[in-house]
């Protein structure tokens, strides 16, 4: 089972919009990563986002580019400061799920799922990037399987 964790694309300034949407650069980078994911035939069953405009716009780009049948859904529990331990209690290891969210939530979730410690640093996300976590059979847990990032520097 795989879970795809996506940090929303680069957004416009909060001075421009209190719930900022994606900037043009943000749209371009998200589209680039979505195109690469499509070329690898990445097809999650469901795409969920936090409800913030930048996350919703990022989710819609992935939804369209990956040609996902199920509608994009807004869910609770994945905003920047939400509790990762509580969120993982509701994960189904058999779903192919893409979660579009924010920092520090995504980095804390990745750390918690792979190490059991949400305060460990196990991966540094980038706006518009994807980290794929895979659940291994017992006695193992979640591992980082691969990542696609807009920048390699």
List keywords for this structure.
153 residues, alpha/beta, Rossmann fold, six-stranded mixed beta sheet, 4 helices, 6 strands, globular
Describe what you observe in this structure.
It is a single chain. The chain has 153 residues and is an alpha/beta fold. It has a single domain, classed as Rossmann fold (3-Layer(aba) Sandwich), CATH 3.40.50. The protein is 30% helix and 20% strand. The protein contains four helices and six strands. Strands 3-2-4-1-5-6 form a six-stranded mixed beta sheet, sandwiched between helices. A hairpin with a 6-residue loop joins β5 (130-135) and β6 (142-148). α1 (24-39) packs parallel to α2 (53-66). The radius of gyration is 14 Å and the shape is globular. The mean pLDDT is 93.
CATH class: Alpha Beta
H/E topology pattern = EHEHEHEHEE
Alpha carbon gap, first and last residue: 30 Å
Determine the strand fraction and express it as a percent band.
15-25%
Range of helix content: 25-40%
Write the layout of secondary structure elements.
Elements: E1 2-7, H1 24-39, E2 46-49, H2 53-66, E3 73-74, H3 84-88, E4 97-101, H4 105-115, E5 130-135, E6 142-148
Parallel strand pairs: 1-4, 2-3, 2-4
Antiparallel strand pairs: 1-5, 5-6
Helix pairs in contact: 1-2
């Amino acid at each position: 089972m795989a879970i795809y964790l996506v940090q929303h694309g680069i957004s416009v300034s909060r001075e421009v919009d209190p719930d900022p949407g994606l900037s043009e650069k943000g749209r371009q980078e998200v589209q680039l990563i979505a195109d690469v994911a499509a070329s690898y035939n990445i097809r999650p069953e469901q795409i969920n986002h936090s409800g913030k405009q930048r996350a919703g716009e990022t989710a819609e780009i992935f939804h369209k580019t990956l040609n996902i049948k199920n509608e994009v859904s807004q869910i609770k529990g994945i905003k920047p400061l939400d509790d990762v331990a509580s969120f993982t209690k509701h994960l189904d290891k058999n779903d192919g799920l893409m979660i579009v969210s924010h920092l520090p939530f995504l980095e804390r979730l990745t750390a918690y799922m792979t190490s059991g410690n949400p305060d460990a640093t196990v991966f540094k996300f980038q706006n518009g990037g994807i980290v794929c976590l895979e659940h291994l059979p017992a006695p193992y847990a979640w591992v980082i399987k691969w990542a696609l990032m807009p920048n390699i520097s």
